[in-house]
Amino acid sequence: MVVGIIGIGLIGGSLAISLKESGLATRVIGMDASQLNLDKAVRRRLIDEDLPLEQGMDVSDVLVLATPMDAMLNLLPRLLDRIRPDQTLIDVGSTKESLLDLVKDHPRRGRFVACHPMAGTEFSGPEAAVPDLFTGKTCVIVDAQDSDPDAVDMAKRVFSSAGMTFTHLDRCAHDLHCAYVSHISHIASFALALTVLEKEKDEQRIFELASSGFGSTVRLAKSSADMWVPIFRQNRDHVLDVLDEHIEQLARFRTQLIKRDYDGFYERIQRANQIEKILK
Amino acid sequence: MVVGIIGIGLIGGSLAISLKESGLATRVIGMDASQLNLDKAVRRRLIDEDLPLEQGMDVSDVLVLATPMDAMLNLLPRLLDRIRPDQTLIDVGSTKESLLDLVKDHPRRGRFVACHPMAGTEFSGPEAAVPDLFTGKTCVIVDAQDSDPDAVDMAKRVFSSAGMTFTHLDRCAHDLHCAYVSHISHIASFALALTVLEKEKDEQRIFELASSGFGSTVRLAKSSADMWVPIFRQNRDHVLDVLDEHIEQLARFRTQLIKRDYDGFYERIQRANQIEKILK
């Protein structure tokens, strides 16, 4: 079958690799606002060819919308206007409320399946696409009851063939849980990078003294502003909620240091250690 | 030569592996307050034998002090009281001011070389020891002018044979830079774990939705309270200084979200991205 990928970056490109490797896609069409990205994707053999949006859409059995979130808000209604009943449209976006509110009354809403494959790296663009990005990870299917059953089946075939398992959430719960588990770690990491860049004026020292621990904590700070600002914009309220909690947790460590309450500090580190049980 | 390791955990145990593999140590003696740790270290063949502290000290050419920081404060003066002029004592502690202030007038101060190998993982104990922990990393030698030149040479032989390169700092600069680059990432990670555990009451959701990005940012939150509380206690003022900056950076993201200043948010993410240049 022919898979059309709109936005051929880290996620779109990695999915293209998986779908070709699994044999589910016989042909992968790339569509992208940037001709530079399309050229890279062709050179890296992520896609078989690139086509203009409407042309690429018409020849695809399945369409995967994998642009940044703000472009999705713009594209999704236009794609649904044009979609045929034998086609399935899947997105891979990190927030769902605004997107799904936008198309909730669209006559062809059923052809659309809102998905969030919980996978990624701190890199972006077609050069960042890698095989096996999705293997063993979870794909969240959001508000599945609003999609046609055959469209949901198709979405599951796509992500199964990339090695994913599934969970279901409604759009509010999805955005809430993603703020808690994913979006806050990006803000924490951006803030840590800014902290160190602000305090440590001697870049050579950072280079010398940064152990792998620092590198790990700050890894997400390399993530793209083009991708993340639209996510924070669309999930603003949930992100603010969890950001308040995070600042509060840091302020408590601060108070404990000021008061020299090292027993309390010890007890809270032990509580933080419990994350290990959940993360395997 | 015989190397005695006092505190046979992640760092002491990993160093023992490297020193035996490189051939620098013909025999490794383990000393530890915990007989359980010693038994594990013998079973894992990290050490050739375990001995009581004074006995093990007397038969060692080089002694490596690798306990948590609070035990170091207790042990270092006692070890210097007993050390012979043909022996070298090295520590691997994460803070240096209190430790070095404590022994600055000791008549055998010259036999001691204060070292901080910038390497580690979130795990602890002899079971966490791994080969190649130090390879390619930096070892900071602190206040080298207060150590006998032959003792410094010996310390360099030890860490060179583990694959490390060297940099020099005085004790105040060391503690300051480590607060900036290492200690704050641990607090940030502990606080992030507590944030997520507080907000996300549904542990199964964390398990399902946590991508590798979250896992990376929160990795250090698995670190041991026994190791880290003494570090925060001894480096309290510098840690408070950088923690204030970190809370301020997060508060700025918060203000930008509240004001919907997404251009400002974008600009600050791009600034955070600059950490990439420094971290290779």
Automatic annotation (TrEMBL), chains A, B:
Q: Enzyme group, top EC level?
A: oxidoreductase
GO BP: tyrosine biosynthetic process
Q: Which Pfam families match?
A: PDH_C, PDH_N
EC number per UniProt: 1.3.1.12
Q: Does the keyword Oxidoreductase apply?
A: yes
Any coiled-coil regions, as ranges: none
UniProt keyword annotations, A-Z? Oxidoreductase
Give the Prephenate/arogenate dehydrogenase domain ranges: 1-280
List the Gene Ontology MF annotations in alphabetical order: NAD+ binding; prephenate dehydrogenase (NAD+) activity; prephenate dehydrogenase (NADP+) activity
Name of the molecule in the record: Prephenate dehydrogenase
